[in-house]
Amino acid sequence: MSKPKFSRYIGIDYSGGQTSTTPLVGLQVYVAKKGEKPEPEPPKDSPNWTRKTIAEWLVDTLTEKTPTLIGIDHGFSFPQPYFDRYARDGLKRTWPAFLKDFQSHWPTGKDKFSVSFVRKNSGAKRLGDSHWRRLTEERARGAKSVFQFNVPGQVAYATHAGIPWLLFLRKKFGRCVHFWPFDGWDIPENSSAIVEIYPTLFSHCFAPEDRNPDQHDAYSVAAWMSESDRNGRLERFLKPELNREQKKRARIEGWILGVA
Question: pTM for this structure?
Answer without folding.
Answer: 0.97
